[in-house]
Specification:
The complex is a heterodimer. Chain A is built from four helices and seven strands; from the N terminus they run αααβββαββββ. Chain A has helices spanning 2-12, 22-52, 68-71, 118-127; strands at residues 91-94, 97-100, 107-109, 140-145, 149-156, 160-168, 174-176. The N and C termini of chain A lie far apart (58 Å). The radius of gyration of chain B is 18 Å and the shape is globular. Chains A and B meet through α1, α2 and α4 of A and α1, α2, α3, α4 and α5 of B.
Chain lengths: 183, 172
Amino acid sequence: MTEVRELLESAASTAEPGEVPVAAVLAAGRRRVRQRRLAAAGAGVAAAAVLLVTLPGTTHGGALPNSVDGMTGGGGGSAAAPVPDPTGTGSAQCGDVRFDRSKLPGRTVTVDNGDWPTDRAADLLALHGWPRAAPYEMARWTQVTDGRAGVLVASLPGTGYRYLPIHRGLDGTWVLGAPCTPR
Amino acid sequence: MRAADEEAFARFVRARYGSLLRYAYLLTTDRDLAEDLVQDGLARTYGAWGRLEAAAAADAYTRTTLVRLALRARRRRWRGETPTSAIPENPVEASDLDLAESVRVALAALPVDQRAVLVLRYYDDRTEREIADLLDCSPGTVKSRAARGLAALREAGLLDGVLEGDSRDRGA
């Protein structure tokens, strides 16, 4: 199959780089390492920080937060407080999806089952004022679905939860709705 | 990262950036996306640099990362990729100038998983087993994706153009 390789090489050869952006790559690498350290520190150190600095609104008491807007800005605290798993009872509506709160926190979404559109969800959340959380690195993601529809839940230390309705599209991929406040 | 390690990483970037960009370009078929992909991939390599002892390991790690990121990007629909089974009807003229663009167009028309298999199998020389492990699928799936990808290239007149055109030229 040398000819296939030659075809691919012919296409690839048109992507010759100009100046190699070493500085930009280094900056991106340092930024990424910083984010990962922050994420790791956020989970462990924040627990101690909450004990030392009592700030109203930094704990959620384990209850399902009812307001997306109420969570914006980290609940008034600067520490990256760990987020307890979302819980709840009864049914709730998120966008046009009805789901069972008692199923929360749901199944954890990890990089190994990457069919879940967490990249896109993180960008959608950023549009709604949430910090851009690199999926799987800063936020913890879970899902509650019946196989066809449900919610994707993102939990970020110090910030809280976000819910997004999801539907399985005709091609089998998950399609996201705008962030919602479960009611 | 220590200064010495950072300098070694910078040398790696200078040495391998072009190759990685070409690789990413085949995966994305878009120059801008390819540059974003390479930067993202290299940022991850930077974070793993302490575990990657040799440049060859770093290169393989980065290429694998590029494939994974490209497959994840498939799910980010705003990137504008619209996989389709419809291949451009016009057969390719065998000139060098438009051959590369025709290959790019044909690759762009493939679903990204088929495109990734073609790149991994025929550009990166990975075995079906390695590809299956990387893509988390069976070797049979790799084989069928490769077959569909090759069929699409053939349907677009690309493989025929290279093989038969060359032999006709030699025979004339």
